[in-house]
Design brief:
globular, five-stranded parallel beta sheet, 40% helix, alpha/beta, five-stranded mixed beta sheet
């Protein structure tokens, strides 16, 4: 049996009862796999890795070591938030790794999206291998892989860093308890595990982070432009009451410039593209209609507050034909 294929008979997890059954099964499976070993978990702070963390804590307790890597592609304020929630509030055994320069140097000059994903995925494993070497008895690597990651990687749509980006030779065995679940099922399991609502309903975020929202070769100034424009978008969506109504929303800053006028002078700068989609399982997605007054306010703020951006666009492409992310 293919362990990466969801059985046709597997019932969708839609109720607390089904979620509890899944939790009980996975706790037992993890204990049988890991035994007395220790698991090093890639903890991004997103929904998937947070649910995996809660599952592994239930299964193996203090034999879980969480590692949060700041690769430089996180959203504004995210590293600080992860430390606050997981270390200070939840008391997790958390190791924080500042690897911003390391990752940016690795992808410097790389424009091909699949190559960027592979580089970031391989570098993630290198970082975890290094952290594991500092500890004792680490033989397992935990990941928040979910089923759409596997499907898209296998079909050649795009290589997710935790699937297609993995190196052929690894020093650790993978532990992936939610890899056969869709995103909506992961949320149901998270709620049953008792995770806070704001964590379970947190907007999805790709493993390579903002690296896939800066198409083309990444530069620090363009990366900062997408980080700042994304923060404005999220703030205004929250102010307008859209945060809980739209499944995923973000900005992209592509690698081309347009002519504009800023403060009465000619500007040659990047556009920022808004993408807002709704979906149930991330395999298909529809476009969310945003009120024009909200879009006008977002445009005004981005073009006046984000250095290097002079234009705001809206992506109206559903999935298919587009994917949710641009890369």
């Amino acid at each position: 049996m293919d362990n990466n294929k969801r059985p046709d008979t597997m019932e969708r997890i839609t109720t607390p009862e089904l979620a509890q059954k899944f939790i009980d099964e996975q706790v037992q499976a993890v204990r049988e796999q890991v035994k007395d070993g220790k698991v090093l978990l890639a903890l991004s702070g997103g929904v998937d890795s947070s649910v995996v963390a809660a599952l592994l804590i239930k299964a193996i307790g203090q034999n879980l070591v969480c590692v949060h890597v700041n690769h430089g592609f996180l959203r504004k304020g995210e590293p600080e938030q992860v430390i606050q929630v997981f270390q200070k509030e939840l008391g997790a055994n958390l190791i924080y790794v500042d690897a911003v320069d390391r990752f940016l140097d690795k992808v410097a000059g790389v424009a091909d999206p699949e190559q960027k994903r592979h580089i970031i995925g391989e570098e993630f494993i290198r970082v975890f291998d290094e952290e594991a070497a500092k500890l004792k008895d680490i033989r397992f690597l935990g990941q928040g892989t979910i089923y759409p990651d596997i499907l898209e990687s296998e079909k050649g749509i795009k290589a997710h860093h935790n699937v297609g980006g993995l190196p052929e030779e690894m020093n650790m065995e993978l532990v992936e308890p939610v890899k056969l679940l869709y995103k909506d099922e992961v949320r149901v399991v998270g709620k049953q595990l008792g995770l806070p609502e704001n964590m379970v309903e947190r907007q999805p975020f790709p493993g390579p982070g903002l690296a896939v929202r800066t198409p083309g070769a990444i530069t620090r100034d363009r990366l900062e432009a997408v980080r700042e424009s994304d923060a404005i978008l999220r703030e205004e969506f929250a102010n307008a009451g859209l945060a809980g109504k739209v499944w995923q929303y973000f900005t992209i800053v592509p690698d081309f410039k347009t002519t504009g006028i800023v403060d009465g002078k000619r500007s040659f700068a990047w556009p920022a593209v808004i993408r807002a989609v709704n979906t149930r399982d991330a395999m298909t997605a529809t476009i969310e209609e945003i009120p024009y007054d909200v879009l006008h306010k977002i445009t005004e703020r981005i073009t006046h507050e984000v250095p290097g951006v002079n234009r705001v666009l809206m992506d109206l492409t559903p999935k298919p034909t587009g994917t949710i992310e641009w890369e």
